[in-house]
Write a structure and sequence with these properties.
- It contains 4 helices and 13 strands.
- By secondary structure, the chain is α/β, with parallel strands linked by helices.
- Strands 1, 2, 3, 4, 5, 6, 7, 8, 9, 10, 11, 12 and 13 form a 13-stranded mixed beta sheet that branches.
- It is elongated.
- It starts with a strand and ends in an 8-residue tail after the last helix.
Amino acid sequence: MKAVIFANGIMNHWPLEFELSPERDLIIAADGGFNHCRQYKIMPHIIVGDMDSINPADMPTHGHGEIEIHRFPARKNETDLHLALQVAIDRNAGEIVILGALGARWDMTFSNVLILLAPFLRHAHVRILESQYEFLCLHGCQKIALEEKPGYTVSLIPLAGPVTGIRLRGFVFPLDNETLSLGTTRGISNLFKDEKAEIEIKEGHLLVIIERKQDNQKLMAGSPESGI
């Protein structure tokens, strides 16, 4: 099952090439992410958080459209996104897509990216989508295959220490069993050479950022149709 989580960052554009299916996907609003759901006329299945970022007049009651509400106290140890991710994992989501996770506050933006390192997410495929960007994290002995499209760039950033045994196939700038150390910029702005490419690592945590460069009209397209 795929879970789609709306966080409370900035979401001025619907992510490129992303399609949401309210019938098949579990849709979770992390507190103020419910405002994005309203913006795109999406009915979430679950709302999670302390509800401090939702206008009380907009807040649905229990049973409204079968929306589950998981309310937490304002004084808590986890962010609303963290709690929403935990709900997705508890519902056995094997794939999690996070929307609206970036841009509102620097501290929250960094926290939302670094939560990809959380051990409880290790067995799920988790991605952050923002406009034309996709963020995901590879952990030791993992690899991904990517399909080249015009205008795509791929950047690799080590997290929490060095990443070893990196192999890049199908890129203009390849790596063969090499190491990227924390703080290096060597992995920034790689380009596809072949139609298909692979990224593989042996140890460490590697943030992969994929940028899709498209025109503004395509950037505005893709809003789903689901009433709220």
